[in-house]
């Protein structure tokens, strides 16, 4: 073959080769220069880069800027300078394809093509994407790894299973032991326990305590539906509760529930606390009901009795208007009921320092009380505390007389724990006693006066008869009779009081002509009262159904008082008026000293007498108005007084008329 032919053949072959190369899908490129100017890049390489043909002729990084932070340029430059080729398998490269970055794995080679001096002329880059292979390999490797892991896991699981199995066996043993344990606990439990299975509440377990409460034996109930085993509960709510718990899965708790139970062939009432607890299966379904039952009949009865006692005690304390106190020497704390706080004017806190209570006691009594408390708490004492003293709180106008009674409570060592007791306000009682004493003194005195006179007249008569010294016996007899009369009136008054007290004051009621009654009274007054001007205004006729004697006594008494408490010569009026079809008001008006507002209510109390300067030495027993009031009230009537406290008083009695 000629040289030309050879060249032609070579040229042809070069072109063919280049053409073939440029169309080859096997990525190939040629770079030269330090900047790696792309001299050639075939379709395969352009596809790999994701670029167009226009990149040919550009420096590598200008053409593919995303390679800037990757090692390729440095490697290429190393090859360029050293003339030593570089090849790698499965190396990563990040390229942009259709706008998305993606990492691929490549086998590639940078082959240095050198001239005869060994200087690099160009670099031939061939590459092959191995991403899918790589992924496959990775998968394979991962699978192998997973299999290894699986194997490791399996052997670990096996080991674990072995251990678990061993534990399980131990647990089973424990379980059967603890089952036995639970059974024993249930058997010996002090509360009743029963286990009911299924919707018909078949009694599976019933411990002795619950059998005792139910009044049933094991044979009677075990294995039977609850309703059949315990028919005595018919009409009571228990069956419903069990059904509800079973249906809803909600626990039911009852406190202090009264139930009729079976008892020795009959029935008995019991008070119980009960819990109906649903039992769930592992899938969450209700499979039965656990019944826990505690009988509290005795405790509740005892407690109710205590509550009743407490209640009665509280009632008695209230009714007796008693204050209670509690003193604890160790802490010096003093406590008591509401009344105690009120009397002592203490703030409504639970515990008060004793000194605060002592401060309320009047000065002259305080030390006596302290001594008495100390004495009762001391070792010499019999534990009793009894004393009377006066207190005056900031709210009291006058001191209050208190009667204290208490007892000391001791601990097991015999040391005083507390002093407990009651206080009674005896101010009024004391006043009453004083009034009674004064009354008895006055009664004796008042009875003595006519008695002395009577005695004197009798003596005179005796002497007159014996010595005829001029005294007319008739005259003396009249005087004596008047004294006897006075005494009779007085004694009748006292007798009335005692009759009232013993409930023996009996009314002898009849139809009474009021007009006639007043006319008779007027007649009597005209003859007996000369010191005052007594005016009767007798008008309408009315009929009372009353004890004539007693009503006369009342009006008499009112006129007597009007005379007693008015100046001589003043006027006294008696008048009456029908206020409706059924009622008449009879009034006695005077122009006397009047009655202060504060006294107006009290004058109707027994032994009460107004204490003021105007009363002077006017004697009396303080029982007249009390008797009037009682008599009027026995007639279903009322008595009242009106007075401005300065001058004059009007007493009115309201009585029912026929
Ligand atoms: P006595 O008159 O014996 O004291 P009473 O029960 O009749 O007892 O009266 C009670 C008190 O009422 C008297 O002490 C007196 O202070 C007062 N009182 C009664 N009637 C009158 C009256 N008409 N005017 C003023 N005070 C009176």
From TrEMBL:
Coiled-coil ranges (or none): none
Domain of life: Bacteria
Location of the Histidine kinase domain: 442-658
SMART domains per UniProt: HATPase_c, HisKA, PAS
Protein EC: 2.7.13.3
Keywords noted in UniProt: Kinase, Membrane, Phosphoprotein, Transferase, Two-component regulatory system
PAC domain segment(s): 385-438
Catalytic activity, as annotated: ATP + protein L-histidine = ADP + protein N-phospho-L-histidine
SUPFAM superfamilies the record matches: ATPase domain of HSP90 chaperone/DNA topoisomerase II/histidine kinase (SSF55874), Homodimeric domain of signal transducing histidine kinase (SSF47384), PYP-like sensor domain (PAS domain) (SSF55785)
Gene3D superfamilies reported for this sequence: 1.10.287.130, Histidine kinase-like ATPase, C-terminal domain, PAS domain
PAS domain ranges (all copies): 178-232
NCBIfam families in the cross-refs: sensory_box
Protein name according to UniProt: histidine kinase
Species for this entry: Sphingobacterium griseoflavum
């Amino acid at each position: 073959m000629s040289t030309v032919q050879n060249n032609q053949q070579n040229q042809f072959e070069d072109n063919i080769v280049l053409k073939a190369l440029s169309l080859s899908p096997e990525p190939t490129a040629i770079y030269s220069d330090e900047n790696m100017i792309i001299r050639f890049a075939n379709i395969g390489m352009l596809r790999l880069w994701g670029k167009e043909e226009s990149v040919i002729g550009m420096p590598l990084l200008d053409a593919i800027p995303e390679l800037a932070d990757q090692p390729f340029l440095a490697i290429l430059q190393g090859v360029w300078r050293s003339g030593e080729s570089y090849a790698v398998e499965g190396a990563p490269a990040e390229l942009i394809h259709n706008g998305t970055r993606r990492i691929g794995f490549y086998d590639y080679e940078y082959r240095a093509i050198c001239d005869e001096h060994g200087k690099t002329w160009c670099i031939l880059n061939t590459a092959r994407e191995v991403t899918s292979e790589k992924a496959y390999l990775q998968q394979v490797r991962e699978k192998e790894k997973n299999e290894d892991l699986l194997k490791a896991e399996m052997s670990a699981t096996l080991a674990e299973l072995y251990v678990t199995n061993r534990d399980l066996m131990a647990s089973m043993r424990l379980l059967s032991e603890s089952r036995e344990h639970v059974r024993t606990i249930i058997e010996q439990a002090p509360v009743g326990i029963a286990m009911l299975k299924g919707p018909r509440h078949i009694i599976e377990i019933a411990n002795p305590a619950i059998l005792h409460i139910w009044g049933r034996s094991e044979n009677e109930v075990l294995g039977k539906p609850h309703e059949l085993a315990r028919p005595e509960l018919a009409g009571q709510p228990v069956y419903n509760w069990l059904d509800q718990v079973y249906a809803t899965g909600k626990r039911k708790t009852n406190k202090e529930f009264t139930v009729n139970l079976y008892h020795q062939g009959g029935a008995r009432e019991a008070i119980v606390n009960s819990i109906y607890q649903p039992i769930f299966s592992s899938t969450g379904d209700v499979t039965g009901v656990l019944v826990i039952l505690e009988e509290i009949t005795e405790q509740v009865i005892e407690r109710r009795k205590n509550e009743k006692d407490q209640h009665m005690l509280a009632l008695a304390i209230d009714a007796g208007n008693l204050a209670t106190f509690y003193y604890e020497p160790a802490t010096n704390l003093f406590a008591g009921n509401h009344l105690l706080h009120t009397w002592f004017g203490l703030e409504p806190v639970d515990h008060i320092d004793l000194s605060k209570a002592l401060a309320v006691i009047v000065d002259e009594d305080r030390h006596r009380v302290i001594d008495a408390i100390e004495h009762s708490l001391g070792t010499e004492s019999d534990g009793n505390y009894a004393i009377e003293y006066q207190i005056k709180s900031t709210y009291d106008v006058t001191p209050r007389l208190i009667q204290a009674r208490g007892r000391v409570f001791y601990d097991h060592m015999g040391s005083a724990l507390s002093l407990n007791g009651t206080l009674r306000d005896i101010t009024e009682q004391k006043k009453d006693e004083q009034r009674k004493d004064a009354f008895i003194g006055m009664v004796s005195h008042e009875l003595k006066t006519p008695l002395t006179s009577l005695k004197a007249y009798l003596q005179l008569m005796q002497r007159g008869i014996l010595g005829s010294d001029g005294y007319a016996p008739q005259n003396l007899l009249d005087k004596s009779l008047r004294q006897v009369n006075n005494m009779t009136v007085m004694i009748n008054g006292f007798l009335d009081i005692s009759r009232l007290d013993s409930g023996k004051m009996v009314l002898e009621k009849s139809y009474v002509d009021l007009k006639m009654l007043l006319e008779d009274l007027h007649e009597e007054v005209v003859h007996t009262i000369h010191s005052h001007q007594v005016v009767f205004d007798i008008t309408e006729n009315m009929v009372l159904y009353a004890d004539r004697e007693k009503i006369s006594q009342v009006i008499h008494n009112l006129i007597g008082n009007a005379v007693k408490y008015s100046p001589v010569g003043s006027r006294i009026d008696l008048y009456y008026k029908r206020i409706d079809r059924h009622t008449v008001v009879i009034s006695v008006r005077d122009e006397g000293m009047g009655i202060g507002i504060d006294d107006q209510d009290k004058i109707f109390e027994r032994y009460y007498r107004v204490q003021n300067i105007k009363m002077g030495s006017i004697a009396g027993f303080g029982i007249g108005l009390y008797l009037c009031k009682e008599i009027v009230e026995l007639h279903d009537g009322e008595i009242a007084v009106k007075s401005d406290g300065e001058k004059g008083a009007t007493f009115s009695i309201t009585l029912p008329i026929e």
